[in-house]
Amino acid sequence: MRTTAWLCLLVVACSKGGERPAAQSQSADTGMANMPGMTATTEVTLTAAQVTHGGVHWEAVATSTVASVATVPGQVIPNEDRTARLGATVQGRVIAVRIRPGDRVRAGQILVTLQSPAAGMAQSDVDKARAQASYARSARERAERLLALKAIPQQDYDRAIADDELASAELRRAKSVAEQIGAAASATGEIAIRSPLNGVVLARTAVPGAVVEAGAPLVVVTDPSMLWLSIDAPENLASLFRVGAQLRFTVPAYPADTFSARIDAVGAGLDPSTRTLPIRGVIQNRGERLKPEMLASVSAQGGGAISVPSVPEDAVQLLDGKSVVFVAHPDNMGGGKFAPREVQLGSRSSGRIAITHGLAPGDLVVTRGALAIKSQIKKGAMPAMEM
Predict the structure, then answer these.
(1) Is 54 exposed, middle or buried (0-12, 13-18, 19+ CB in 10 A)?
(2) CATH class name, domain 71-81+223-304
(3) Which one, out of 117, 155, 327, 343, has a CA that is 20 to 30 A from the CA of 229?
(4) What is the mean pLDDT of residues 146-164?
(5) Which residues contact 160 (CB under 8 A, 6 or more apart)?
């Protein structure tokens, strides 16, 4: 019943009247202009009774002292130590493709099958060399028995030993060639391209019926549980990056979430054309939420400290893919108007989030009841909303 009363009492409207202090109005309008699908006049208006029933509470934005942070662009890329780029081992024709991009595969699983005359010849050479080696071994054993009976001279026995060793060497060579091109244990000329690891098919260029040259790329398989974060750090920020340091970053797909990576490689020198230092971090991709080629905004902690606005974690909501807070403009009767404002998030500590852009100390922000206001917006209860 309490929830019903709250929903019934909530009145959503466009702010077409009422006066606000000039500074406060300007601050809210600036934030609103950044929200896609919202106009600068979109607001939720609540009476004092609605504020009480909804449990809405607001407070002035406080400041927190945090380490100075430099932000640089980055990119999530496959971990090349856990990636296999498979190609054609010999010229041939693609006769079967058993996977698609995004498929999960097991180590040893056949991904692509080729057919090649060279593969057939390689397996035929193995069969021929095996027969010759078997004959040479039998001849050597026979010569050994005859030598014991003094029925043949020593040089005939020595020749049998040499023939046996040559035949064995030829068999090893033929097997090595067949293994290098992946020929099956038959003379059909089929080559099975297998995955060397458990993972996901990242890319596939193999097409059934296509004729490919030796070395042509066919399939890329990667282990998505561990990725790399690639950064090109400007020269003036190079000192912030060191092997073993932790990095924090965000991606557009999850703007309200912060991910981490550990630096495992720092370039030995700057790129002469861009004057940037290549940095590589390792990402433990729990849940496999991050995908290769995602763009990232990476935060590197500096040595100084700065004061920035901060709010409780519950004050930040995700609306239309943007991190927002609801700025309160109270009236003198216990109610007020509440407008969403886009913010950029910084570090988190002790249940609070630093706000690097979008708020100023003293701004009034909803710290409890923000989810209820957001739910009304998502339901389309605001007649002035431009969706």
Answers:
(1) buried
(2) mainly beta
(3) 343
(4) 91
(5) 136, 139, 140, 142, 143, 144
- Give 377's contacts (C-beta < 8 A, 6+ positions apart): 44, 319, 340, 385
Query: Options 2.40.420.20, 1.10.150.120, 1.10.10.10, 1.20.1050.10; which CATH number does 44-66+307-380 get?
Result: 2.40.420.20
Residue 341, CA distances (Å) to 26, 30, 60, 270 in order: 12, 8, 15, 40
> Cβ distance 189 to 119 under 8 Å?
yes
What is the C-alpha to C-alpha distance for residues 119 and 288, in angstroms, rounded to an integer? 39
Q: CB-based contacts of 90: which residues, under 8 Å, 6+ apart?
A: 114, 116, 118, 119, 181, 191, 214
Across 262-270, average pLDDT: 94
In the numeric block, the tokens 């950064």 are attached to 231
| Rama region for 173: left / alpha / beta (φ>0; ψ in -120 to 50; rest) | alpha
Residues 6+ apart with CB under 8 A from 262: 244, 245, 246, 247, 281, 282
Q: How many CB atoms lie within 10 A of CB 117?
A: 12
**In the prediction, which pLDDT does 67 show?**
66
Can you give the three-state secondary structure of 168-203, one letter per residue?
HHHHHHHHHHHHHHCECCCCCCEEEEECCCCEEEEE
Ramachandran angles phi, psi of 363, nearest 5°? -60, 140
What sign results for the dihedral spanned by CA atoms 160, 165, 167, 168? Answer: positive
Instruction: Report the pLDDT value the prediction gives residue 76, as an integer from 0 to 100.
Output: 98
Six-digit token string for 26: 């300007």
pLDDT tens digits, one per residue of 20-45: 443 343 343 444 434 433 433 477 88
Nearest Cα neighbor of 208 from 118, 114, 117, 119 is 114
